[in-house]
């Protein structure tokens, strides 16, 4: 049986980071992936195709809306052409995740589904068993498909099938108002579908700051039909037409749907791993349970990425992967911390999230300060006619930045400055002291942080001391 220092199961964002990192430090590494190609969900069914589709949809939307300048666009959207463009983005990035690139690093790549034979021995479909001194599980997640009666008859779309649709559904109902549902709902709406989002909870984007949730919903409602507190009871099909049945406060409603899109969360890919043969514990949803060093209850078996049920993001899988490289190879106990993980939701306008929401910050820190700027106070957004949105920086009473949230055109890019500031231990006053080239979008951070000095100067002791000094100064 072939022996490895590290066996990595799953060739997505987390697994590729671990495989490349451990191999570059001299370990003998095996990477096992069940698909024919590497890259995982993010590349094939997630981040990359969704962002390519969103961009195409935004272009179509803008082309249609330039009639205000006397330019008129007409015609139907050719979804096959859009899918081809999406596929081109995947193919381009696939080169970076090419199997040969990993083989050139000295990694043995096995294509086939993996499962545990023992806590060190891995079975791989179509191959002989291999031995791993350390094993890293990075098998990701897949769409959760709740047992809603009727779905088998009506069929449904998920992110795994959405990027291969032949025609644009006329009436499209999304079940689930989280990031997957909303990013794609807005994209399909901008391409021309009539879209409804049914969300079980009281708010869209359940993890966001309350003000952001409200602003995002207000903006989305201008383009989509958004229904919250909706309990979907069943789907049905009559005379070739699909229907979604739901209730709000016991009141029953029905929606027509050409297609139904399920976006109701994720399920970890652990069911075929035979974790019981290795004695690895899972939580009640099937995630591999890990401690803050990303070790499972079996100390030489680690889990990174979606499969451990932490935060479901590519950059988190990468961050966890980097941590595991050191813990697995050198037996270190480096811990992960999720306190300052940012994420962006690629709606138009974009939503940026960094750290605690206002409610969470209040609960954890008690007294907090909020520095908020509406984007209509920032010249560049006014010039762009993109004044929808705001930025909100939350600090403690001494100006230490706790967290930041924003909704606005390109927020995911220009808010990065705040992340750097926090990592470098800067306070909100330091953000105000930077020079911002006029008129850029990041000036929204300048505007919000200027409020800190304004409050200090105009209401505080500094102004009184200054007044006295000016009177005495000759
Ligand atoms: C529509 C959508 C949009 C998203 N957009 C973003 C975004 O914009 N930004 C962001 O940060 N995140 C985004 N995400 C989340 C992101 O895709 C995931 O968090 C990320 O892919 C997780 O990486 P991973 O390595 O844990 O799993 P994956 O990338 O899914 O990799 C797991 C790999 O394991 C393989 N595998 C599974 N079981 C086995 C087995 N038994 N044997 C061998 N191989 C196996 C799978 O085939 C897969 O290749 C999005 C997700 C979706 C669905
Ligand atoms: N831009 C990004 O970074 C990005 C984009 C997409 C996805 N993701 C990642 O993928 C994860 C999964 O996204 P998601 O949107 O599938 O999951 P989610 O758990 O974030 O949201 C699912 C939503 O569906 C609702 N829901 C659940 N069951 C329902 C039902 N029966 N009827 C109606 N609504 C129901 C939930 O209340 C929730 O609001 C995200 O948490 C995020 O980490 C990231």
From TrEMBL:
Residues 4-321 form the FAD/NAD(P)-binding domain. Coiled coil: none annotated. Its EC number is 1.-.-.-. One of its GO terms (molecular function) is oxidoreductase activity. Keywords: Disulfide bond, FAD, Flavoprotein, NADP, Oxidoreductase, Redox-active center. Its cofactor is FAD. It comes from the Bacteria. Pfam families: Pyr_redox_2 (PF07992), Pyr_redox_dim (PF02852). The keyword Flavoprotein applies. The keyword ATP-binding does not apply. InterPro entries: FAD/NAD-bd_sf, FAD/NAD-binding_dom, FAD/NAD-linked_Rdtase_dimer_sf, Pyr_nuc-diS_OxRdtase, Pyr_nucl-diS_OxRdtase_dimer, Pyr_OxRdtase_I_AS. Residues 341-447 form the Pyridine nucleotide-disulphide oxidoreductase dimerisation domain. Belongs to the class-I pyridine nucleotide-disulfide oxidoreductase family. This is Dihydrolipoyl dehydrogenase family protein. It comes from Pontibacillus salicampi.
